[in-house]
Amino acid sequence: MSKSKSMRDLYVELLEDSYDSENQITKALPKLAKAATSPELKKAFERHLEETKGQIEKLNQVFASLDMKPKRKTCEATKGLIEEGDEMIEEKDELEEGVLDAGLIACGQKVEHYEIASYGTLCEFARILGFKDQQKLLAAILKEEKAADEKLTQIAQSSVNSMARAA
Predict the structure, then answer these.
(1) What is the DSSP string of the chain?
(2) What are the tens digits of pLDDT across the range 17-71?
(3) How far is CA 60 from CA 9, 23, 43, 163, in A?
(4) Cα torsion at 51, 118, 142, 73 (round to 10°)?
(5) Within its chain, how far is the Cα of 11 from the centroid?
(6) 158 lies in which domain range?
(7) Does the residue 161 lie in any domain?
(8) What is the pLDDT of residue 1?
(9) Is residue 157 exposed (0-12), middle (13-18) or buried (19+ Cβ within 10 Å)?
(10) Which of 15, 48, 25 is closest to 147 using CA atoms?
(11) Are 12 and 69 in contact (CB under 8 A)?
């Protein structure tokens, strides 16, 4: 009979999933930035790449406070969302002007929404488990993910969606 999992075990599994997710994202963001035609969107993806690297460092701190080495558990959700972005990039020659950027924003926001849900859950689990320092680190990541999502919305609404619609 296998040992039943505790709340802490679930928390660690979710951390490992998020750690893998962030590492996958560091490989995907340069491709999104390269494919983007809007300078503002390109810059947003590049800026979020730097934030993501910082988020990995914050997750390293969380693992260290648990006396654990960071470990990755394949995040299938992020893997699938990144594949959607890759497909969008592959179809770029078939898309009218502006439509590619609108599609890249949609793909980026799907990832951000997944991360917002993940970090919201991790923050709550850290609170329940009494990991106050970890909760602060995770809340900082959550705030960055929400800001990245808002930035993508702002870019879409201020220029990209109108350009895509006019195409």
Answers:
(1) -PPPPPHHHHHHHHHHHHHHHHHHHHHHHHHHHHH--SHHHHHHHHHHHHHHHHHHHHHHHHHHHTT--------HHHHHHHHHHHHHHHTGGGSPTTHHHHHHHHHHHHHHHHHHHHHHHHHHHHHHHT-HHHHHHHHHHHHHHHHHHHHHHHHIIIIIHHHHHH-
(2) 999 999 999 999 999 999 999 999 999 999 999 999 999 999 999 999 999 999 9
(3) 17, 12, 26, 41
(4) -40
(5) 18
(6) 7-87+96-166
(7) yes
(8) 45
(9) exposed
(10) 48
(11) no
What CATH number has the domain bearing residue 44? 1.20.1260.10
Q: Could you give the number of structural domains in the chain?
A: 1
Cβ-based neighbour number of residue 6 at 10 Å? 10
For the entire predicted model, the pTM comes to: 0.92
The answer to the question of residue 2 being in a domain is no
Amino acid at position 58, single letter: K
Contact 53, 23 (CB under 8 A): no
Judge whether 26 lies within some domain. yes
Domain assignment present for 153: yes
Structure tokens at 139: 């809340």
